[in-house]
Amino acid sequence: MTTITPFAAGSYIANRNATQLLSLKGELNDLSTQLATGQTAQTYGKLGTGRSTALGAQATISALTGYAAGISAAKTRTDLAVASLTQVAAMGTNAKTVLNNGLQSTPINTIASTNAAMANLSSALDSLNQSAAGSYMFGGKNVSTQPVAGADMILSGTTDSTGQPIAGLKTLITEQIQADLGTKGLGRLTQTAPGGTTPNNETLGLNQIALADDTYAGATTQFGYALTGAATATGSFLMSGYTPPTASTPSSTKLSLTAQPKVGDSVTLSLKLPDGTMASVTLTAATTADSTSTTSFAVGSDIPTTTTNLSQALTRALGSSAGSTLMANAAGRAAQNFFAASASAGTTPNRIVTDTTSGRPTGYVTGAASKTVVWYQGESGAGDSDARATQTVQVSATSSIAVGSRANETPIQNVLAGLATVAFGMPATSNVNVGATYQAIASKANSLLASADTSPSVQDIVTNLSLASAGLTNAATTNTATQNTIQNTLDGIEQAPTEVVATKLLDLQSRLQASYQITASLSKLSLVNYLS
Questions:
Q1: Could you tell me which residues come within 8 angstroms of residue 120 by beta carbon, excluding any fewer than 6 positions away?
Q2: Within 13 Å and on the Cβ side, how many CA atoms surround 200?
Q3: Which of the four pLDDT bands, split at 50, 70 and 90, describes residue 380?
Q4: Distance (Å, whole) CA 375 – CA 226
Q5: Torsion angles phi and psi, residue 150, rounded to 5
Q6: Ramachandran assignment for 182, one of left (phi > 0), alpha (psi -120 to 50 degrees), beta (any other)
Q7: Which end of the chain is more exposed for a tag (fewer CB within 10 A), N or C?
């Protein structure tokens, strides 16, 4: 009789026992592996229904880890930027304080203000080159290029490879002051004394004084003082006329004394500066007047003598005003012009064009980069409003925080220009007009230094970046909490608790040992053994 082995008598029980033993052996191997690795399974496929949740959790944790790295780097950069700009704002505020305190003793504090401004300007420029891990913070989108040229180069200029000079800030301020004051130091005004001949070939009487703008066409609106109308006077001793400018002639005014002024009567001349602001010169009639006075003139024995005295006093007053108010204005304008330039935007500081024949300034032209230092080398956008957006940090799947900044934002430019105005515009203590000049410099510089803490200000930028830093901290805290929660869920799926695995392993070992013993006993069973 033929027997089919798999279906032979007793074969099913034998196969079943073998399968059960192999299954228990497989469980033993799995539990041993879990005990050794701490993992529920070595492949996602063996996680069963939890594999989809585990895969999703791993992806989320990976993304959160990436966000954490970006947040950490951005937090360091942002905090350093806040510290740097806080220092710049403090320098501007400190400079204002020093200037205002110096008004009490200008000859002494002229030197103190100049030295403090120069030191602060150099330090501010260095602060704007701050970097973190080789990444510059004040260059906008360009984080690999040093955004600000070296302080020495900016202030004093340099030379090219052929030894030709490249002008720095100090040179531009000096050029602007010289162009505004003119060779006679009267703000490019031409004064004709009584009995003289005006630039228009008009002969004056002994009771007349004439003033005219710079006689070079087009120069009056860009350099020096510009006449805005006739002189005004108290009392009835003066008659003054005004001739507005034409395409070929400058504006002019003529002062004619028709009677002797009374003591206390005054003459006032209004003057316009190139930036549109106004200045005025006032002279008051007195019985006697010092020969150096810039505020009064002596009433003479007759009208011609009084007119001469007025003319001489007017010359001194114009020189004093030009050497203080106009000079301070020129220094401030030159500094603003310099710091408005940007290499990345393709702009360079405007340079003065001079007529080769007359030597008079005729206007401005954009300076060649090979002739003038361009202080800002970073990325330059359309304006201050997008500076923060030049660098953003992704803090979650749906949100980001803007942490960018540029060294050439307007408030920063103004503070730098204010410091430069003091550093290079302040007069020497030997200047006879030092008091008035100090006050004029202080007034012009303070209007620029106000950008340190008066909105829109450097302090506003500090506040924005501080808020961004706080936002990064909050995002990091939220992400950490989320990551911990997801990690706990993932651990519940992937991790095999040692205590549980050990218990299961001992139980399985006991069952497997019992199965082996029973199987071994059954394998020795026979009819003889059974009957015995």
A1: 91, 92, 94, 95, 419
A2: 17
A3: confident
A4: 32
A5: -60, 145
A6: left
A7: N
Q: Which amino acid is at 307?
A: T
The two tokens of residue 140 are: 């906008």
User: What is the pTM for the complete model shown?
Assistant: 0.81
In the chain, domain spans:
149-375
Q: What average pLDDT does range 150-175 have in this prediction?
A: 93
| b/e 369-384 (16+ beta carbons within 10 angstroms → b) | eeebbbbbbbbbbeeb
Report the C-alpha gap between 227 and 249 in whole angstroms: 13
Strands 350-354 and 238-243, bridge-based pairing: unpaired
| 282/273 Cα distance (integer angstroms) | 17
Instruction: State the Cα–Cα distance between residues 126 and 124, nearest whole angstrom.
Output: 5
Of 436, 189, 190, 106, residue with least CA distance to 295 = 436
Spatial separation of the C-alpha atoms in residues 406 and 276, rounded to whole Å: 29
pLDDT bracket for residue 5 (50, 70, 90): low
456: preceding bond cis by omega (within 30 degrees): yes
User: In whole angstroms, what separates CA 293 from the centre of its chain?
Assistant: 45
Taking the C-alpha atoms of residue 184 and residue 476, their distance in angstroms, rounded to an integer, is 66
Alpha carbon 422 to its chain centroid, in Å, reads: 20
DSSP sequence for 166-234: EB-HHHHHHHHHHHHHTTTTSTT-EEE-TT-B-TTSPBPPTTEEEEE--SSTT-TTTSS-EE-S--EES
Distance of alpha carbon 207 from alpha carbon 195, whole angstroms: 8
298-301, Cβ contacts within 8 angstroms, sequence gap of 24 or more: 299/260, 299/261, 299/262, 299/263
Q: How far is CA 145 from CA 130, 134, 161, in A?
A: 11, 10, 21
Pair of tokens at residue 450:
């106000």
Q: At what angle do helices 434-449 and 106-127 cross, to 10 degrees?
A: 30
Q: How far is CA 488 from the centre of its chain?
A: 45
Question: Encoding tokens for residue 286?
Answer: 């007195």
Taking only the tens place, the pLDDT of each residue in 322-363 is 999 999 999 999 999 999 988 878 889 999 998 888 888 888
Average pLDDT over residues 493-517: 60
Q: Does the pLDDT of residue 123 top 70, yes or no? A: yes
Cα→Cα distances 58→7, 396, 483, Å: 50, 16, 10
Q: Does 293 score more than 70 pLDDT? A: yes
* Distance of alpha carbon 261 from alpha carbon 204, whole angstroms: 20
- CA 89 from centroid of its chain's CA atoms: 10
